[in-house]
Structures are given as structure tokens and as C-alpha cells.
Amino acid sequence: MARYIAKRLLMMIITLFLIVLITFILMHSVPGGPFVREKTLPPQVEAALNEKYHLNDPLPKQFFDYVKGILRFDFGPSLKYTGKTVNDFISNGFPYSAKLGGITILFVLLTAIPLGIVAALKNGKWQDMVVMAIATIGITIPSFVIASVLIYIFSFRLNILPTFGLTNWKSYILPVIALGGYSLSFVARLMRSSLLEVMGQDYIRTARAKGLPEVRVITKHALRNALIPVATILGPTIANLLTGSFVIEKIFAIPGMGKHFVESITNRDYTVILGFTVFYAAFLIAMIFIVDIFYSMIDPRIKLE
Amino acid sequence: MWEKLDIRQEEREKIVSKRRSFLSDVWFRFSHKPTAIAGLMVIVLMILFAILTPSFTSHTFSSQVLDHVSMAPWLKSIALDEGEGYIYVNQNLKLIHVNADGTLGQTLTRLDEDDINKVNTYAFDEETLQLKYGGGSQTVVFEDGREFSDVVKVKNKTYLLGTDTLGRDILTRLAHGTRISLLVAFLATAVNMIIGILYGGIAGYKGGNVDGVMMRIVDIISAIPLTLYVILIMVIVENGMTSIIIALSSVYWVNMARVVRGQILSLKEQEFISAALTIGSSPKTILMRHLIPNSMGPILVTATMLIPQAIFMEAFLSYLGLGVQPPMASLGTMCNDATEMLRSAPYQLFLPAAMICLIMFAFNFVGDGLRDALDPQLRK
Fold first, then answer.
1. pLDDT tens digits for A263-277?
2. Integer angstrom CA distances of residue B287 from A154, B17, B23, B263
3. Residues of B with CB below 8 A from A156's CB?
4. Are residue B279 and residue B336 in the same domain, yes or no?
5. Quick check: A148 and B349 CB within 8 A?
6. In a domain, A106, yes or no
């Protein structure tokens, strides 16, 4: 176990290093540099700015300074908002995004898993059809369309839910549904197919042959194993929710990380884009790592190598 | 006593099913899935719509008529006398005459404004008319004292699906946007397919350390959500169609590479590859003539699944403002432009959104159908 974790950790560090390297190179290959605007700056001002942000240093030095900064969790200053650092943006936005994301994950798991179970147990009946129809809709319709339709119906027409902000429990309803729609459908589909597969296994027949009541067969034998594939995609699902929140936070005007990220893209605020990408990537890789460790613990069939 | 047996008689008693080639077998299974066929038909219709519509409408996707801004497909207008048409009052109290057949006529020039009494005066042909808009209702009063205030819904015949905030015909833009979105999706998928096949093919065929290193790279790439990469690339290259295609096709090949590699790894152990090796075929011939054609099934399925993903991603990027440059339109940029108008003109958002959903449904259904048709494990 310890060896497996150590190996995975090493891989994680290498991956992160490469991500930082690639994003750094990409950001520094932007034509013109960060201070090119419609209004050209006087050369002295530009030189002073370059000096201030250490843009005159040789690239390798800049890179290692940047990596050193990241190791101390310092992503550097924002190029567009003087006096603000990337850390400020992250620490302002992260609580909102984390709260929205956390509630969405709970919502997804608490609805998708029961839906998938019902669909599998009632395979081919109307319940199955309904669940699969919902799942197909959720997978094919982009989140911003779902969000707009929800806003139009519930905020403009019925006037019962707010359109923006995260002030009370009511304002969470629409963003959570819009953000979780895709993952919900995906998890429900996976749960259904995985439970269907398990129900066809020999040990289920054995359990039934022993005379176990059906409820016990399902809860004790089938569900436990059917949940394993669902656990594996938790990592990617978290990734999906996080990146999906760019659009959702924009639509619902939630001051989370996604909104800051989108704004920094429109402002071409390169250090913020760079910092957010690295932060996102690190966060996601860590999440996937944790889920994988957890996964190898619950499934004894996985050999840790 | 001996009778010659009719040869047709003999053939009639043979118990064989109709011989079908692999392709017709696939087609047989595909065509027996109603959702797949429906999806295929929708795609064909969509392509025809995207290609043909611009040549049937009198508008172009970029021409703006500022008098005709945000006009809905159904105009709520004030009915005049029978045969005289209607008067459409827009949000800025601009009056547009709608002919009796629903086509848009002249825009009335405003002669006088009286904000206190809420009465505006306009020139209409040779006469003048007044619009009284106080008290929540609008009344048109002619010089001769005739008054009209009945609001009816008139089908907009000039712009069948209405106009957007800049007065551009939505139908034409929808066709244009569909064309751009489909083009981006097809091209990105094609490039992804080529890169993925070559990368996965080489990794799978070479095996050993080469495979190890190549797949490690794929692992690293797929460790981060591709959305982030695509956004990064879009930030660096100039906005535009080619950039989207470059961004999409530089990251989405990893899945394809994995699929191809898996196929090739299992195929290359089979006898026909040993046979090809024995007769001295070069690695290139083996890869191109034997291995890749034989893994075409899963490749095609992955590719059809890639198309909706690319459309999704294109819409997502355009929605964030990283899409094609105006006046070009893709379905995503149209949705983005219409978001602010959601309350007053929801049709501007719902039309392109419905189009995206339709495309996504169609490609997903076709992809599902193809997978079931090509997957040998489901074969009965």
C-alpha cells in the first residue's frame, strides 16, 4: 500500500511539474506580451512594468522563480489589477465554488444513484424508460442551455427562484441543477449498467438459491459491487463539475473561481490565467489521487502495484 | 420412374440465411434501431438546412437592419382596418407598418414627441398619425379620428424566425451557425482521428518502452480536464474558426489514441499478422493495411462520439467569448449574444439552443446505434 501511494505521489508530482512547465511556456509564447493594449504605453513605462514584474529576466530564471513561488503557494501578482494577487482571487472565489461544487456533488450522488438503481431493478419497464430519458437529456443538453431554460421558467415566468447570487437556499436550486445535470445523467447511466451487470453474476444466483430475500440480495451483495465503478468516476466527475462551473458561475453571477477565471480570460490577465490553471490542475489531480486510493481500498480485487 | 429434380426445388429447401457482408450486416443492425435512423435523418436534414437555407433567404448572416431590431417571429401589433395591415410598436416606440400579408413595410418617421402627455406623432404615407401610449395600452389615432388599439399576433413573414439585437435575420444566422458548428466539429474530429490513429497505432505496434513512454504522456495529458487546455490554447491563439479547430484537435486525440492502441495490441498477436510478417511485409504495410483497417469499428464509434463532444466544446468556448469572431456566428456565440435578452426576447436564445440540442441528440443516437451495430460482443 505504502509503495503504491509513494509511486502515485511521484507520478503526481511529475505530472504537476509538466503542467506548470507547459502552461508557463504557453503563456510566455503569447505574441506581444501582457502589456500590449489599444493604447500603447510609453517605452519607459513599459520597461518599468517589465522590470516590476521581472519580465526582463531570462525565461528559465522566471520559470524557476515561478515554481519556487508556487511551492510557497504564491502565484504572483495580477497584471491587470494593481495591488491584487492571484492568491486574492483564489481565496475570494474558492469558498463559493467549493460550496456550490460540494452541494452539487451531494445532489448528484443522492439522486443519480437511487435513479440508477430503480432503472436497473425495473429494467425495461416504464421507470427504466423515464430514468434513461432523463439521462439522455442531461447528457445531450449543454449546461448553459439548461441554466437559461431554468431561469426563464422559474425566475422570469413563475417568479419563484432568484436568478443570481448565492444568498439563501433558494438561490442554490437552479445553479445546482444546471451544474449537476450532466454528471447526474452520467452517474445514473453508469449505476444502472453496472447494477444490471452485477445482477447477472453467478454469486447473485447463489445468494438467491440460498433463499435470501431479494432486498438482502440487492443491498448486501449486488449494490456493494455495483457501486465500485461509480466510485471510480467520482474523480472525473469532480473535474467536470469544477470546469463546468465556469459557465454556470457566469450565468448566475456567482463570485466563485470560475467567474474570476472567465474574467481573467476576457481581460487577458496572464498571470491569473496561469495561476488558476495550475491551481485547478493541482486540485483535480489531488482529487483523482484521493479517489483512486479510496477506490483501491474498497475493492479488494485491485492489486496495488 | 426417375424424374429430373428441378434445381430450383433443391435450392428452395436449403436452410441458409441470406449471406451478408460485414458492412451490410452492420447496416442491418443499425437500420433496425429507430433512434439511430432518426438521428441519421436529423443530421442529413441539418446539413441540408445549413447548406441550402442561405440561398433561399433574401438576407445574409451579417447584414443589419437597425430599424428591425429584436423582432419576434410573432409580432404583437395593432390591427388597422381590414386590408390596411398592422402597426408594430417596438420598445423604443418606433412604429413599423406591417403589411396585411405579414411582411414588414416602411418604418414611420417620428415627427413629434410629447413625453408628458405620452403622445407621439408619426408620418404615415401622406397622413400623420398619433400613438397614445399612456395607461398601459397603446392606441393609434389617425387624422380622420379613426382609433385602433386591438393587439393581434401577426406572423412575421419578412423574418420567419425573427431578428436578433442587431437586426440580423435569425433564420439565416441559424443556418450559418449550424454550418460553422458542424464544420468545426467535423474538421476537429478528422484531425483528432488522424493524430489518434497514428499515435495509438505506433504505440501499440512498437510496444515495449516506446509504448510505455507514449502512453505515460497520454496519461499526463488526460490527468487535467481538457477544457482547461482548450481554454489556454484559445487564449494564446487569435480567436477564430481555425483556432478553435487547432485547440480542439490538439487535445481530444488522447481517447482515440487509447482505443487504437488497445485494438492494435490485441490484433497484432493474431495469425494474419504473423503471416504478413513471414512474407516480409514492412511495418508500415502491416500497420496501414492490416492493423488499422481491422480496428476501424471502434475507431468509427469513438469518432462519432467525438463529434458531439466537439460541438459541445465549441458552444462552451463561444459561450465564454472565445469563439468565432463576429459577424460570423456559431450556435454557441448566438446563445451567448442572446443571454442578455432572455427576458424580453427568449426566442433569440431558444432557437440556437434548440439547434444545439437537436444536433447533440442526433449524433449521440447515431453514435449509440453505430456502437451497437459494430460491437461484436453484442452480436447474436
1. 887 777 778 888 888
2. 56, 34, 22, 12
3. 342-343, 346
4. yes
5. yes
6. yes
